[in-house]
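Work Package 3 (structural annotation) set out to generate three-dimensional models for the target panel prioritized at the project kickoff. During this period the team completed the workflow that converts sequence records into discrete structure tokens, so that structures can be stored uniformly alongside our sequence database. As a representative example, we reproduce one entry of 134 residues exactly as it appears in the project archive.
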Amino acid sequence: MKKQSHIESHFVQGSGLNQTGNIPLLFPLRPNETEIIFSDETNNHNKTLIQIKSIGVGPFPPFPLQVFIFTKDSLFPIIAEVQGSELFNEGNTRAFQVENFSFLAIRFNDEVGQREAAAEVFIQKTFCIGCGDR
């Protein structure tokens, strides 16, 4: 008997009136804490698109964000930075495509400890159920 398999995509995304496409979801970030944004607890092989933008909050411009992307195939994370900006609401965006995604964490380092930051995140995880090991 042949095993059934199918491919699906799950999204972490926002919504809005008359909006389509990669609509990010806003995540407030606490200073000097590494925040887990999304975790995949399944055993299904996947390919994942991750899009992150640094956002200014209140009187603060977009600050640099440290990004940690963990995969199921490595003990070491992919570490990257999303640049901030001196211009309000003009933060930079980075996109990553990874295989066998496990979880995403973001850190906002604040030497003052009283500033605010946020990240807009869009995630599209495509996976196969019943496809075997790869």
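DSSP finds no helices and nine strands in the chain.
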